Amino acid sequence: MAQASVQSRILQFGVFVADLSAGELHRAGVRVKLAAQPFEVLRALLERPQQVVTRQEIQQRVWPQETFVDYDLALRKAITRLREVLDDSADNPRFIETVPRKGYRFIAPVTERGNQDSAQNPEPLVEKDDRPSQR
C-alpha cells in the first residue's frame, strides 16, 4: 500500500473540520461524537460539495448489499443526526439541502486542508469568483 493512500484528508466548512481518514468531526476545535453511519453520509456529501448525492448512492456506500435494514428510515435518522450535530435545519439549510425524491446536497463552502501551509491558506473545493478583492 502506498504512503499517500494513508495521508489524512481534512475538510473544513464553517466552524467544522472533518478528518475523513480518521472519521472524526470537530466543531471549533472540539471533537463531536458522531456514529459511523452518519459520518459516512457526511463523507459522501463532503466529497461532492454542491452536487446531488442520490439516496441510492448513499445507501450503496453506507449499507452493503448483505445488510438487512430499512434504508429509508436509517438514512433519515443519519441525516437527522447530522443536522443536529451541525445545528442545521431541513427548512432553512446551511449545510445539507434535501433534494426531493433524489437525495441530498452539501451546500456550504468546503475547503481542504493538507499540510501546515495549506492549513494556513485553505483551498476551496468549489470554484469561486477569481476577481481581485476590493479593499
Would you write up a description of this structure?
- The chain has 135 residues and is an alpha+beta fold.
- It has one domain (8-124): Winged helix-like DNA-binding domain superfamily/Winged helix DNA-binding domain (Arc Repressor Mutant, subunit A, Orthogonal Bundle), CATH 1.10.10.
- Helices cover 30% and strands 23% of the residues.
- The protein is built from 4 helices and 9 strands.
- The chain has helices at 36-46, 55-62, 71-86, 116-120; strands spanning 10-13, 16-19, 24-27, 30-32, 52-54, 96-99, 103-106, 111-113, 123-124.
- The strands form 2 sheets. It has a 6-stranded antiparallel β-sheet with strand order 4-3-2-1-8-9. A 3-stranded antiparallel β-sheet has the order 5-7-6.
- Strand 6 (96-99) and strand 7 (103-106) form a beta hairpin.
- Helix 1 (36-46) crosses helix 3.
- The radius of gyration is 16 Å and the shape is globular.
- It starts with 9 loop residues before the first strand and ends in an 11-residue tail after the last strand.
- The model is unreliable at 1-6 and 115-135 (pLDDT under 50).
